[in-house]
User: Fold this.
Amino acid sequence: MTINVAAGAAAYAKAAKHLTAPGEASPLKGAGSGFGDLLKSALEDAVDTQKTGEAASLQAATGKADINSVVAAVNNAELTLQTVLAVRDKVVAAYTEIMHMTI
Assistant:
């Protein structure tokens, strides 16, 4: 498996857009903004990446796409899927740990 460094850097840059400079108000504390909205936005971006990968694969199957762009799109989709699965696993593990706590 190869790691696409450019895709990782783009993901970090996209996440950094949600954060602000130290002197500014945090967008997470604003009205209507919160962890749920941030998570929803991240999932929507993941779905868009998956759709782009599927579209590139379809174009490759019909012979209308450059193989390099298809490989890049499919790798980005795979990396996004792996990230979503890792986050899901961490959330489930945290939930399980909370449920086993004694009160």
